[in-house]
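debug: dumping io for the single-chain case to check the tokenizer round-trip. Nothing else runs in this session.
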Amino acid sequence: MAVNVDTVYKTVLLILNKEQRGYMTPDEFNKTANQVQLEIYLKYFEDLNQLLRLPQVDLDYASRVLLLDEKISIFKTSTPINLDSNGFSLPNDLQELGTVVYNNIEIERVQRSEYYNLLKSDLTIPSENYPIYLYENGYIKVQPSSIDSNVIANYLRTPAVINWGFTVDSNRGNYVYNSGLSTNFELHQSEQTELILRILEYAGIVIRDPQIIQVAAQKVQQDNINEKQ
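debug: decoded output
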């Protein structure tokens, strides 16, 4: 379940107004919120790398790796990819490339040095049953060249651009939330508190209030420490 963008924005405004710390416009919020969403998303990979080095518990609901994978799984997707003059083009929203498959056969990813060496030898030359690919500059080059369709890329996509959409009240001149013009956060619902805290940290910069920055940064840091204990 996604995190509602209106809930986050109104909570941020409520805290700012309660403390009489200023105001954050929808445009400021949208730009800040997208930055925060991306930061939290990218941090998943760093956290996962660290967690995999630690001993894990056997209980599913207590496994931090499984819980983190649940958050990442929101962004797991797959799509057919098409061949052009540069190779098979990858989706624009790709963040991390996973397996590449041809007719239910996984295509092996190789480095440039391996790629040319494998093509030179009759013993290792790729076939449609044992295909390989080289990934460079946003394209993948598949061998054998007879593979020109039916290739599927499994990957992690980047989060969608969130937006707190609005109309303007013609009488009062204030912003009125419009769900039809809005895009919610795509992060796991458990991230709502961290989203709010991190946006408040940026809000302190926007309205030049160091106290907000300090309090929000300390809370985010403590939450991160608690998660890893």
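debug: round-trip ok. The chain has a mean pLDDT of 86.
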